[in-house]
User: What shape does this take?
Amino acid sequence: MRNVLHQLKQYKKNTFLCIGLTTLEVIMEILLPFVTSLIIDQGLEAQNMPAVYRYGILMIVCAALGLVFGALGGRYAASASAGLSANLREAIYRNIQTFSFSNIDKFSVPSLVTRMTTDITNVQFAFMMVIRVAVRAPLNLIFSFAMCMIISPHLSSMFLIAVAFLVIVIGTIMVVTLKIFNQVFRRYDDLNASVQENVSAIRVVKAFVREEHENVKFSKASKMLYDLSVKAEGLLAFNNPAMMVAVYFCIISVSWFGAKFIVGGSMSTGDLTSLFSYIMSLLMSLMMLSMVVVMISMSLASVRRISEILNEKPDITDPEQPIMAVPDGRIDFNHVNFSYKHGSGKNALADIDLHIKSGETIGVIGGTGSGKSSLVNLICRLYDVDDGSVCVGGNDVRSYDTEVLRNQVSVVLQKNTLFSGTILENLRWGNPDATDEECIKACKAACADEFIDRMPDGYNTRIERGGANVSGGQKQRLCIARALLKKPKVLILDDSTSAVDTATDASIRAAFAREIPGTTKIIIAQRVSSVQSADRILVLDNGRINAFDTHENLLKTNEIYQDIYTSQLQGGGDFDQPA
Assistant: This one.
């Protein structure tokens, strides 16, 4: 809760102004029944019209001031609550940007989206109710009860019975519903996950005619959310009946005993009239408090989920005195062990001892799950090792400033992502200051110029969200060009030419040798033709190094490499290569 409220920042002033104005509004409202009793007792019953006019004007002034204070309080409440939600979204988004891959693995994407939308909206509404209604209702209740005690201490004891009854009922409801709302928000995550997966893979769903299956899966997730929501709302429905019981108990009790006091002469008609007004004000305050309790019980689950993101600390942090320059592209793995869940004993990489010279071209090949992507993720420090060390340029990657390291270790990941904007805007993710000529040169090296030149707007062609309007091979080549613009010491291609034909693949590799000879190049591929011209080839098997040698030597000595080579080339070749 403290972390959430800390995000008020510049809106603290609006919050306190709202509380102050709400207090003044309550005072004005509390004075109205008191003035009404004066009009009845000292004006109407005494037939004193000047007193009626005098107290009538006072009543109008109090009402007008209450209206002004209420309107201003509402305005500041809206400003403070909306400001809090804006700051929370910004703080969560900023913290997510600092997460390492291991941090992101803890939270699913749908869960993060729900926390930044539904959960923050719940907190916004709850905060508005707290600084507006939760301030107004207790003050109204206290002042009303105080006035009731002044008018008739005996009758005021009836309210204490009603209050005790409501506190027990509302407290029980809150405890039970809080547990249910915790489950509700987890179901929201499941529902969002189902929607995101279905929409992002809609082409696959339609290609395999799985619409009905997806509808059933979504309906199941929706039904579970519906059942929990109905259960929670069903419990909250007891609020109103309990409130009505308290209201009618007080009205009947005050009417019965008040009539006797008037007949006995111990209470005036004006006092009884104002007492009824204070009764309704007091009970309405309790009703508003019950609404606040409901909203808070919902928002507490949201606050907890938001706090989880705000409290999450990045696993990867910079040292106190980081190295601010990468000398060269030398890479050393010194007996590295790595697992995605530290301490689980399930290593993705085991005892990797590997040494690569600056400027070398290294091919990496192996079966699915052999640890190829895990290996290169450690070079740019997307994850940290469990044991051993990874060095770039002769220094442990953990001793560098993270931004400096990643600017010199350029990675084209398996999942290529383009953003909405022009081709030039996407390319400049690699280097914001790159000139048009530098962008064109990088595209030529990545063999992307040939399809860009055919587009109507050339390099100013707009890319749709996720690169929906370009093919897989075009997307890969644009991502390679974007990485080249960084002019890195190390370039990693994680199966990044799988969607291009072998002729284009060969042209890209030739351009690398020509344009960036001093850059260390690590090429992960499934095709032997993509790595056979590399200086050395690393064969991985089940997270361990099986072999590390040239193409010719591996063909003579390594069984895994021989099997891959035979199945791909002698068995018919690549898809666009003659057998």
